[in-house]
Hints:
Elements: E1 2-6, H1 11-21, E2 35-42, E3 45-52, E4 55-63, E5 67-73, H2 82-98
Antiparallel strand pairs: 1-5, 2-3, 3-4, 4-5
Amino acid sequence: xxxxxxxxxxxxxxxxxxxxxxxxxxxxxxxxxxxxxxxxxxxxxxxxxxxxxxxxxxxxxxxxxxxxxxxxxxxxxxxxxxxxxxxxxxxxxxxxxxxx
Length: 100
């Protein structure tokens, strides 16, 4: 699943905000029992692994000049909740970028 969120912050500011707020990602996952690990594979790519309710989801967040792209690998067992996950990424991803 690939979701692009537009921004007008510039790469440096988006990187700064993602570095400072990546610990907040788990707060946006329903149930409150998620474990999220993040790492930066290069200056514009944050890799994340989410473990919640016995499921493991991994993905990357790519920072571009005018958008941030969330690339998430959903296990086939979670395809039925794809619309919910996509909506959560759109709304909560935007909050991570715009919140000061």
